[in-house]
Structure formats: C-alpha cells, structure tokens
Amino acid sequence: MKLEHFAVNVEDPLAMVDWYAEHLGMKVVKQVKEAPFMAFLADDSGRIMIEVYRNPSDQVPPYRTMDPLLVHLAFVSEDPAADKARLQQAGATEVSDAKLDDGSHLVMMRDPWGLAIQLCKRGTPMLTEREN
Fold it and tell me: What is the rounded CA–CA span in Å between residue 84 and residue 63?
C-alpha cells in the first residue's frame, strides 16, 4: 500500500491552498470552493498529497497552541535557512532551528494559520527519488 494523503481540518482552507501553492510549491489536484472547501494538494512528485478542508461537524484543532511534535507537515528543503527566511516573509513563524550530528538541518515553523510545518534537509535522504 502507498500513502495517498493526510487530511487536516483547518480554519481557512481557501487561503491555505493559495499560500501552500505559492510558497511551498504544492499543486491543486482537486478543489471544491463551497463548504466544506475541500482541496487536495500534491507535492512536486505528484505522489504525496495533503487534504485541507473546513468541516464544521468537528472542531478545528488548536494548531497555534499544540506542540508541533503532535502533528506537523514535513517538506524536503535543499536550503532550510533560505526557505525559512522566505516563508517568514510570507507570514510563517519560526518555532525551532536544529542542526543534528548526522548532518540534518531541521527547521520547525508554523504557517500563518498555526499548523506546524517542518523544513528537512537530511544528512542522509530518507525518500527515494522514484519508485523501484
């Protein structure tokens, strides 16, 4: 089995879709612009997606006050320092910036809606370039 998507209930999915597309390079695969404002966003491989929506049948988690280790979206970054600065200009905020002994550089941030996003440059990449 392969992972298709990870879904999150968010406060403003329409604005979030635009921000993730513009600043994180995500591509809209499918979107409904009426309630519950569901959208599927794929990474540049086209193989991994996130789904964002605003479903009033349950609460939007308090992302702004949740520890980022509870839930975060991690993105591969070739230059976490530059991406951090660029995303801060776009309204994201820094939570932590760590350089690990294995050569990894991990930057934890919050998007403008408080959802934690992580910029990962691994000392040894963990994802394969393509399927075998």
Answer: 19
Size of the chain in residues: 132
Question: Taking a C-beta distance cutoff of 8 angstroms, is the pair 15, 2 a contact?
Answer: no
CA distance 38 to 33: 7
Q: Quote the pTM value.
A: 0.92
At 77-111, the pLDDT tens digits run 999 999 999 999 999 999 999 999 999 999 999 99
Burial of residue 46 (CB within 10 Å: 0-12, 13-18, 19+) is exposed
- Per DSSP, the three-state class of 22 is helix
Sheet (strand 93-99) strand order:
73-76, 116-121, 105-110, 93-99
